[in-house]
Aminotransferase (Eubacterium segne), 429 residues
Amino acid sequence: MAGYNTLSKEQLNEELVKLKEEYAKILESDISLDMSRGKPGEDQLNLSMGMMNVLDGNSDYKTTVGFDCRNYGLLDGIPEAKQMMADIMEVSPENVIVFGNASLNIMYDTVSRSFTHGVLGETPWCKLDKVKWLCPVPGYDRHFSITEFFGVEMINVPMNEDGPDMDMVEKLVSEDEAIKGIWCVPKYANPTGVAYSDEVVRRFAALKPAAKDFRIFWDNAYAIHHLYEDESKQEKILNILEECEKAGNPDMVYEFASTSKVSFPGSGVAAMATSKANIAFIKKQMGIQTIGYDKINQLRHVKFFKDFDGVKAHMMKHAALLRPKFDAVLSMLDKELKDAEIAAWTKPQGGYFISLDVMEGCAKKVVSMCKDAGMILTGAGATYPYGKDPKDSNIRIAPSYATPEDLVKASKILIVCTKIATIEKMLEA
Ligand code: PMP
C-alpha cells in the first residue's frame, strides 16, 4: 500500500470500503481489550511475590540502626529505605524523605502545601490572584489533574526529542512571576518515552525564574525502568539536584520516585529528593500530617531487594516481560501502518508507553471507534491539560497489561480505525 497522500479519491474510497468491511468483522467478534493505563501485567506483579515471605511472625523487625519498625517513629523513613530510594534517584540519602505507598500524593501534597502555606516563607499561592504552571505536552494526565484541581492556569509547552522546548520555558519563567512550577518526567517520559538531554537538564538547573518560589516538579517515575539490558540502550540523565546546586539554585527542584512499577502499584514505597532547606520546611508539615508512614512495608522492600544491584536485577526481569509487549505493538505499526504515511509513533527504550500521533482532527474518532470495537484506550486529549489536545492527534498506547497475543489483535483494531478515520478526514477536505 502506497502513502495515502499519493492515492486518488477513487482509490481512497476503494480502500475505505475494504477497511469498513474489516471493521464490521471486528465489531462482530467479541473483543474486550484494555490499553488505557500503564499498569504492570500480572506476570510482572508475580515477580515481587517473594516480598510476602521476607517478613513473618518470627522475623526481626529492627532496622540496621536497631529501630523497631513495628512502632511509631522515623518520620522520614527507615535508613535502608532512604538509601534504596536515594540509589534509584542517584542522590544522597540526606536529600531524601521516604513517604507512603505512592508518589502522586506526595506531588499533590506538595502543591497543596504551597497553596496553603507557601514555599520557604513566600506568600501562600492561595493568596495570589493567579498561579500558572508549565506543562510539557503530551504529558501525564494525572499531573494535569492536580494543577487543574487547584485552579492553576496551565500553559502547554511543546516536547522536543530531547525534552521540553527550553527556549520557551526560559522565556516564560523569567518573565512571569505567576508561573510557579513545571511538570517534568525526565526519563522515559509519559507518554513520549523521551529522556532529557544533558543540555536540557543544565538549562533547567540554570533557570532564572521571576518567582522565587518557582519549583521544578521532577517526576522521575521511570528512573530505572529500562526495556533493554544492553547499557548502551539505557537512557542516562544528568542529576538535577547536583546541577541545580552547581547553578546556584539548590532549592528549585523537587524530585519524586516510587517503586510502584518496581514492586506493587499502590503498595510500594515513594520518596522525594530535594535540598536540605526544602526538606526541613516539608518535614514541619509532615510531622503534623502523620507520626510516620508504613515502615513495615519499607522494611519488606529492602529485605526483598537487598541492595541497589538487587533492584536493578529485578528491573531486568520486568524488562524481559515488557519487551515482547512493546515489540508486538511496534512491529504491527511498522508492518501495517507505516506505508500509509498517516501517523508517527515513538519507539521508547523504557517506561510504559508508546505515543501515537495520528492525522490532525482524528484522535477522538479513532479512540471512540476502538471503544465501539471493545478496545479501551486512554481518552483522546488526556495527555494535554484540561483534556484538550489542540490538534486532536495524540493517542497514548499502554502495552504493559495485555498479553503479546492480545496486543497484536489490539494493534490491528487500532490500525484499522486509524486508517478509516484518516481516509474519512481526507475525503472531507
Ligand atoms: N508519575 C508518572 C509519570 C506516572 O506515569 C505514574 C503512573 N502511571 C505515576 C507518577 C504514579 O506513580 P505512583 O504510583 O507512585 O503514585
Notes: The longest helix spans residues 308-336. The chain has two domains: 4-44+312-428, 61-305. DSSP finds 13 helices and 13 strands in the chain.
